[in-house]
Design goal:
Largest sheet: 7 strands, antiparallel
Oligomer: single chain
Number of domains: 2
Order of helices and strands: EHHHHEEEEEEEEEHHHEHEEHHEEEH
Structural class: alpha+beta
Radius of gyration: 26 Å
Strand content: 15-25%
Distance between the termini: 27 Å
Number of helices: 11
């Protein structure tokens, strides 16, 4: 299996400058390749430029501009072109499927923050000597950069990436590992129901409170965004020090909320994986849940619209995004795989409307957000616990069903 590691870099001032120049030059290469593809499509009778053709031009580009392109790794530049090619492949796939195309766009130097090295030892070298005073990673054109390695890397390093987040630099490794030893069996199974009032409820009656990191930081974020909005949009070389500080403060606040949300997801997923052998959850379509309601034109007032609950839906969308269900489910699946646990996704329809005692399905079974009261048999319970029980039952049925 493949596992990723992310470590903080400790570059010197000169190395920070060199890392920034590496990002800038790779961004310039990506934008130039994008411009070539657009020109070929518009002016040469809709001709598509392939990755192989652009990769073959790299030697000429490096020879023509040795100061900006020739000093960086050839493989990392190929990886940048390959990322652009994947973006165009996804664009044409969305066009063919009839979805929103989202054509690849030109990237500013602040929006291009990652350089990939496809293989350790080709343009980069991960050096984790056991008895060395500090771990280092070497990048071509930058040198040996110190790494704050907070945990050991198991397995052979395959790929290396350098990423900028605000004023910090990180190195991201992927390492190939043998199948890990599974955790001891507990004999316990659980279903979980994701929610807003509670982050999740399990089939045993337990609840995980919602941390609401975004809501807690809303006042600070609002003040930072308001301070940033006072500055007009100007070119980067004309921005004042106050403008740059406002940008960094807003970015740091958003980054803090993201890291808090990620940490909570890791801790919650770890607790579930350690306690249960089988975990069933709802197969949520979060992207569809975040869609805004369609406008309703007013029949009696030309150009007017009827109330459609858009304001209330916007508040619900903020709460769903703040909960971070998608991130949590991704982390839960990855941790379960490494621990030898089983995760099952089930259809969420009617899980909160079905009585676990008699099986009666009705909208009236859930009179309020928290209360469940079956109109057929009178069974009462917390609505989220009922949903978790039904999710668990559906997951066990799917687990024991023969393959199609």
């Amino acid at each position: 299996m493949i596992r990723a590691y992310k470590f903080l870099l400790r570059p010197t001032v000169g190395q920070q400058v060199a890392l920034g120049e590496m990002l800038r030059d790779h961004c310039s290469l990506c934008n130039g390749a994008l411009q070539e593809r657009r020109d070929a499509w518009r002016h040469v009778s809709k001709t598509s430029v392939t990755y192989g053709r652009q990769s073959a031009q790299l030697r000429e580009i490096r020879a023509f501009d040795p100061e900006r392109q020739g000093r960086w790794s050839f493989s990392s530049q190929q990886a940048t072109l390959r990322r652009l090619d994947k973006a165009f492949a996804a664009f044409f796939r969305r066009v063919k499927a009839g979805g929103t195309p989202g054509c690849p766009r030109f990237r500013g130097v602040n929006w291009f923050d990652t350089v990939d090295f496809p293989r350790d030892g080709d343009g980069c070298r991960w050096d984790a000597t056991p008895h060395a005073p500090a771990t280092r990673v070497r990048f071509q054109g930058v040198g040996h950069v110190r790494v704050h390695q907070h945990r050991p890397v198991a397995g052979k390093v395959k790929t290396v990436s350098v990423k900028r987040e605000g004023k910090r630099w990180y190195v991201i490794l992927t390492a190939g590992q043998a199948a890990p030893e599974p955790l001891p069996q507990t004999g316990s199974v659980a279903g979980i129901d994701m929610g807003i009032a509670h982050f999740l409820a399990d089939s045993g009656g337990g609840f995980v409170p919602s941390p609401r990191h975004g809501r807690k930081a809303a006042a600070e974020l609002e003040a930072a965004q308001r301070a940033l909005a006072r500055f007009p949009r100007v070119r980067r070389d004309k921005r004042t020090g106050n403008h740059q500080r406002a940008v960094r403060k807003a970015a740091d606040l958003h980054r803090r909320v993201r890291r808090q949300r990620l940490g909570h997801a890791h801790k919650t997923a770890l607790d579930l994986v350690r306690a249960h052998d089988v975990i069933a959850h709802e197969d949520l379509r979060i992207r569809n849940m975040l869609k805004a309601p369609a406008p309703e034109p007013g029949p009696e007032q030309p150009g007017g619209f009827l109330p459609n609950g858009a304001a209330a839906k916007a508040g619900l969308n903020r709460s769903i995004s703040d909960a971070g269900w998608g991130v949590f489910l991704t982390i839960l699946t990855a941790r379960a795989e490494s621990a030898g646990r089983e995760v099952i996704a089930v259809d969420p329809r009617n899980t909160s409307r079905t009585c676990p005692a008699c099986g009666h399905v009705a909208k009236e079974n859930r009179p309020t957000q928290e209360k469940f009261h079956c109109v057929a048999c009178g069974h009462t319970a917390h609505a989220d616990t009922v949903g978790a029980i039904n999710v668990l039952r559906a997951g066990l049925v799917r687990r024991e069903a023969p393959p199609a």
